[in-house]
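Lab manual, section 2.4: Encoding a predicted structure.

Procedure: take the sequence of the chain (265 residues), apply the prediction step described in section 2.3, and record the output as structure tokens. A sample record is shown.
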Amino acid sequence: MKVYFYATCLGGIAYSDTCVNAIKLLQKEGIEVIFKKNQTCCGQPSYNSGYYEESRKIARHNMGLFEEDYPIIVPSGSCAGMMQHDYLELFEGKPEYERVYDFCSRVFELSEFLDKRLGVRYEDCGAPTKITWHSNCHALRVAKTIQSSKALLKSLKNVELIELEREEECCGFGGTFSIKEPEISKAMVSDKIQDIASKNVAYLVSGDAGCLLNISGAMEKIGANVMPIHLYDFIAQRIGIASMSNSGGLGNTKFEKQPQNGDLQ
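Recorded output:
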């Protein structure tokens, strides 16, 4: 099977090792991964800010880029939700709607693909540990992939998942929200950190890079003794395939050349 891998903006900027580990999880199942070098934003920041026509330009670019009839795998419930569902709203009543619908039906958040399409369960190689889980808002309410993420974690026999009391509350990131409303964002992440700290766990696991940047930055400021880690880094470490360098280990990944005309259509 061939799939496209969509790295996301934060994956490319701050979580490149996570993208490598996500690709390795796919390769472990015999998947050939195609990585388009000129991929760009999913359009969520502009969409959430009301720039709908600009967001349509981004969506059209992505539809043209991932044009073959392969699944599009996204290691983020936030971006997956945008590309699965919000694109449909953007193009409702537009001539391209059928094309958009077909595109959206090929988008999968990685845990959803591993859990529901491939039925993956993992052999845990790590020592016993306790973790807690933060649910990203878009993954919870739009992409609806949280149960798949937890199913993968619960398959790890030496990992005890301790639920947060306020798991479904936003961490205060919300993309542009944290910039527009910094004081409210700060109060929200403080509540989240208190909940995390009360669980006496070794790791905070989440499937969204934006949430992890926000929560980890706030925890570092107060010296919280909990390690924030991305879901796909955590799983890759537990099963012994983790990469801490984005330069190697991608023998079954096809990098496609960037066209000369890379402008948004």
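Check your result against the sample. The longest strand covers residues 129-134.
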